[in-house]
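Weekly structure sync, notes
Attendees: PL (lead), two postdocs, one rotation student
Agenda item 3: pending single-chain targets
PL asked that the sequence for the first pending target be pasted directly into the notes so everyone works from the same version. It is reproduced below exactly as submitted, 371 residues in total.
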Amino acid sequence: MEENNKVADYWRMWKQREERLKKLFPKGLEDQRPFLLDKLSHMETVRTKFAKGLNEEERLTFKILELERQKLTKQVYPNGLLRTIRNLIMAYVKRKANKKENSQNTSNVNEITRQLKDAGFGQAIPTLMEKVAKGLTNFDVPIAHYVSPTQRMEYQLSFSRSTDDLVQLSNIKAKLINERRPEDEKKHNFLIGKDELLSSHQAFNLLDGRAIRKDDSDFNWIQFDLNDRNHNGSYRVKEFGKEYDQQMTRLIDRLPINDEEKMRVKEGLMLGERMQIVVGYGGNDTHYSLRANPQSNEITIVTPQGGKVSIDDLIKISSGALQKIESAPDTTQQSSKKLNENTRSVKEDQSKPENRNSRRNRSHGKKHRAA
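Predicted structure, written out during the meeting:
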């Protein structure tokens, strides 16, 4: 794999500028003092900016540019005394710049570690600090954890350095693995430049098929289409408008639970969680699972057996009305019971001796008439 060379990238920007100026001034540009001073200034910026944390190719590029800088300094400042004074001034400027840069880098790394910790990726911080200390330009930090006894989430956090030498998180590759069914692996690449930094659990909820609420766009709700992938294996993202916020609030208000529970359910559903509530009557309580369903503009409610019920059903259950419906006589079962009783009665009659003799006499009478 080809190493990234941030020193060459930075210097290449100057070379592109130089080519543009040569087109404007095709003759004698390289003898113009303003041009040479600007070029020297750019070289000194490279010297200050990239003095440490370089890979092998970057160090070689830096040394070559340093020799070019020394030659250009002598050309622009041929007087030895003037050049010495200038070098002392530039050394002081460099120390000030390094101090400021170190402060910026510290603030930058502290901010990233805070964001990672808040988003549930604190496990990545020790490896991140180690790789930042090595001065790596582009690097990955893999982490993994279990979300259930048989489900495991794996993340690959990709970092890069900007032209200002600041570390930034560029993308997160998330993967949900079911150890009982490894072939059902689900994965998605979250681009941080496009999406805000989702929490690790929000990433799991999306890969597990649930919708989550976002705060930074007109389309507040997103959900993966688990039947539609792009060429990178990531899922197509379905987006839903703010209207579902009001609809979800109306639906939650109808749930037969107290206000504190309603608030807990709403906050959980917005994060994409599968929320549990308890509804019952007369001590017969049942746990129900709820999840947001913006595509159908409803809240999906699932029984412990996996069946679906409506909010109206929960209201009836909480009042005891649905229990009466469920315990009402089943006409089909009654008809079957009567049929079985009639059949059993006929069999009992046939088994009596007088009934057997009667059938035998009727049978003899038929034979005589036939004769």
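Discussion points:
- The chain has three domains: 6-76, 109-241, 244-327.
- Residues 109-241 form one domain.
Action: rotation student to compare against the earlier draft before next sync.
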